[in-house]
Design goal:
single chain, mainly alpha, about 0% strand
């Protein structure tokens, strides 16, 4: 630092300027293009049955949230560790670690806002977002907030990892394991109970998946398994010549087919706000971890 007595707020401004110059000079804008490509690929494979039936909606929401987490971590996983030696020197000269991390948090928030907008814009052009009663203004606004909070939480998680490890190579080695944990414990691939449920609550993916399902009014969508079973039964009735109409088969299947309702996906404003709150808690915890980890930068012996 050129001024060892610079205030914390002044240092935040100085480092924000540095991040912006690096963003321009090192083509940091490529992360926006990368995010757009990922968004386009994900949206293209989801299909038009997303937000129409439960199975397709669940898998689609999981895919979109996974994309947000991937993009967010990729944004920042090398941001701190690649200049660790510089941070150590400037810390000796009067750098406040909290100011340095806060500058990253502010800058990355801007990046994540743009990326959330790109994901929403591209996906809305391909998918038919649910025409349900919005809980906060509009359904698209709800999804924008969810995409941003998930991407930003993952981004700050990447900052925390980058503050802990000492080299970009190590950071990129750790990254796949972090992503796998997010996927495994989201509740999508496996039903999580007992201790595993507690571990699942420590993931970004669970709260992001919950939020997307709530905004889609998931519990009131036609159940994919019931629809498929009904179609198969109607086919059998027609082939066997049984004296039942399609409407009668439909009613019989609804009576005898048990459809589970997930209380985590209740279409309520309080439920959605709670999941957003948990994402903010994750973000705050990761930010604190980044600050604490960097406070030990002077112990580096390289």
């Amino acid at each position: 630092m050129s001024n060892a007595k610079a205030s914390r707020l002044t240092q935040v401004g100085i480092y924000l300027g540095k991040h912006w110059r690096l963003f321009l000079n090192e083509c940091g804008w490529k992360v926006l293009i990368f995010g757009a490509v990922i968004s386009a690929l994900v949206s293209a494979v989801l299909g038009q049955n997303m937000f129409v039936y439960t199975g397709e909606t669940f898998r689609g929401c999981f895919t979109l949230i996974s994309a947000c987490i991937w993009i967010g971590i990729f944004n920042s996983i090398q941001s701190i560790c690649k200049e660790r030696a510089i941070i150590q020197r400037e810390h000796y000269a009067g750098l406040h670690i909290s100011s340095y991390v806060v500058s990253h948090l502010i800058f990355q928030a801007g990046i994540c806002l743009v990326q959330a907008g790109i994901l929403l814009g591209i996906s809305a052009a391909v998918l038919n977002y649910p025409a349900v009663q919005p809980l906060f203004g509009s359904v698209l606004l709800e999804y924008f907030v969810t995409y941003f909070l998930v991407t930003y939480a993952a981004d700050v998680l990447g900052l925390a990892i980058s503050a802990i490890v000492r080299s970009p190579t190590t950071a990129m080695t750790v990254m796949p394991f972090v992503l796998i944990l997010q996927l495994l414990f989201s509740g999508m691939l496996f039903t999580l109970e007992g201790p595993m449920g507690i571990v699942g609550s420590a993931t970004i993916s669970k709260w992001g998946l919950n939020a997307t399902a709530i905004s889609a009014d998931y519990n009131n969508l036609p159940n994919t398994e019931l629809v498929n079973a009904t179609v198969r039964m109607q086919t059998i009735v027609q082939e066997e010549g049984l004296p039942l109409t399609n409407e009668q088969v439909d009613e019989l299947m609804k009576e005898h087919y048990e459809v589970e309702i997930n209380p985590d996906y209740d279409h309520k404003a309080g439920s959605l706000a709670a999941n957003w709150g948990f994402l903010l808690v994750h973000t705050a915890v990761y930010a604190a971890v980044a600050i604490v980890a960097l406070e030990f930068v002077d112990r580096d012996k390289r």
